[in-house]
Amino acid sequence: MIIVCEKGVVISMDFTKVVLSRRAIRNYKTDPVPEEILQRLYEAMNAAPSGNNHQPYRFIFVRKDDIRKELALRACHQDFLLNAPILVAACCEKDRAFDTAIAMEHLILSATNEGLGSCLIGWFEREIVREILNIPHNHEIPILASIGYAAESPEAKPRKPLNELISYDRF
Ligand SMILES: Cc1cc2nc3c(=O)[nH]c(=O)nc-3n(C[C@H](O)[C@H](O)[C@H](O)COP(=O)(O)O)c2cc1C
Hints:
Helix content is 32%, strand content 21%. It is α+β, with helices and mostly antiparallel strands. It has one domain (24-152): NADH Oxidase (3-Layer(aba) Sandwich), CATH 3.40.109.10. A hairpin with a 5-residue loop joins strand 1 and strand 2. The longest helix is centred in the middle third of the chain and has 17 residues, at 97-113. The mean pLDDT is 94. Bound molecules: flavin mononucleotide. Flavin mononucleotide binds next to strand 5. Residues 23-24, 26, 78, 119-123, 143, 157 line the site of flavin mononucleotide.
């Protein structure tokens, strides 16, 4: 099931379609993401489970041009980040990257459901990003992500055959 609103914008997809249609997007339109969509992304992140329901993280949504530019330079010159209208920095308490990854996946899948593209970014200079965004030293920065409307439609990347991924009862 895909629900399409009047202007032809996808507003909600079947869950399987969301999971299977997500791609790492490295080419964005500069169009801003509407505020009501962002609110739904935040709610999806806030619905993520975490150990003891502690929610040991904070997500910085960077929309200002100058700060996005600084971040893009510190993401090892991955220039495609310059075009994405939103960069998200995930910050978390020490050793809580697993909780953070779940909330980030909620973000990524929710963005896909809203017709947005995204890319997780693990390759960046963490200590310089910490300075740019005033992230306190008791927090780690496990990952960044770019979010925006895709200007490309990449094919699905191949995955391992399931028998290399799943085993039963023993490794
Ligand atoms: C933890 C993590 C870190 C990643 N870091 C980067 C990155 O720094 N730059 C980049 O272009 N893509 C990055 N990616 C995206 C992956 O390259 C991409 O997800 C993978 O090639 C599979 O392609 P797909 O997402 O289109 O299925 C990262 C993905 C993950 C999960």
